[in-house]
Amino acid sequence: MNTPAMPQLSSDSDFTPARSAADIDVTEPPLDTRPRRKGIYILPNLFTLAALFGGFYAVVMAMDGRFEQSAIGIFCAMVLDSLDGRVARMTNTQSTFGEQMDSLSDMVSFGAAPALIMYEWALRGTGKLGWIAAFVYCAGAALRLARFNTNIQVVDKRYFQGLPSPAAAALVIGLVWVVDDQGVRDAASIDWLRWLAFGFTLYAGLTMVTNVPFYSFKDISFRRTVPFIVIVAIALLFAVIAYHPPTVLFAVFVAYGLSGYVVYAWKKFKGRPVSVIATSTDEPDEAGLHR
Fold this sequence. Notes:
The protein has helices at residues 42-63, 67-90, 96-121, 128-151, 165-181, 191-207, 228-243, 245-270; strands spanning 159-161, 213-215. The protein is mainly α and 291 residues long. The chain has a single domain, classed as CDP-alcohol phosphotransferase transmembrane (TM) domain (Four Helix Bundle (Hemerythrin (Met), subunit A)). The protein is globular and about 50 Å long.
């Protein structure tokens, strides 16, 4: 009877014994230890980029002497800037990148752009004082945004600390829009007008860095039910704005730009704290913020 032939090994290297569990190094690192790249939420940042484009567009239009289009660009940037944060919260897409992007966009659209537009429109007629006023406004916007980012955790949410930069931009650009809408051209050559622009620019720039409280409207919830008359009032407000947007919007922001000082004087008169910093007065460095 023929026995089956056994397989032959060509050499010792042709046979590798199985590794036991004790032979396996469990401390070996995984194949890919690189941190995962973080993506960027596109929806809220689209609104931020659109607001940035509004500020850039406004500067370009001012360089061409089309100041009405400049004003429309700034006001569109204001609307878009008010939406990006709300969209991020509603869709749960908040991020540190979005916060930084929003601050940079605000600096361009509500800091540098209004200063350049105002200088090109009227302040160039006042010589050195004109570009100094424009710089004061631009620096005030930068300081205000930096302070807002650092104090965001300790400020009373119902109030802004100083005039917010979008409202400051609306204050100075609203003047440009109203005067241009009246058919006035070459404002830099009109003595009273260029000094009026000088005063508006300084007022807006310096008010941004004060501690005067301006109502923020952040305690208004759009999820609550409201009386029917509120909807009627909102519809009437839209109708009034549509009747003559330059005049109505300018009047609204002039009133808002003065409201902080009214609130400040009222609180002082009543003996109430006027600071919006919501921290204790025990720390020596914070004592001055509550006077």
